[in-house]
Specification:
Number of helices: 6
Number of strands: 2
Mean pLDDT: 82
Largest sheet: 2 strands, antiparallel
Distance between the termini: 81 Å
Structural class: mainly alpha
Radius of gyration: 27 Å
Strand content: under 5%
Low-confidence stretches: none
Amino acid sequence: MKIVNSIFHRSFNFIHHFFQKKLLFLTSLLVLITIIFLVPNKTSAVTEKSGKLLFQNYCAGCHINGGNIIRRSRTLKISALKRRGIDSPEAIAKITREGIGIMSGYEEDLGEDGVQLVAKWIWDEAQNAWTQG
């Protein structure tokens, strides 16, 4: 009987410690996931601010508030973009990078990161009817 109790006790301790470690791991994982999704993402705020700043420095001269002072039909408003088949930030990034028509590309000035930031910001503004300015 002593041997059975000893085996049972060791098995119980093993199982207890095993689940205790799993519980600690799962609790830590839950805390990490909570932090990731509930803490405000400062990177997205920086990205939005950077995209806006790049737009103001490189694009707003011709595209103030999403318009176009050179060719009125080539605005950055959502309806004009979709009419021309520009239906994603990637499509805007390509134009920003390479240029289109009389507009030159800005890859050399912005770099790939800058191109992506400004394209995402333009797309977000177009989705919001340029109400954010």
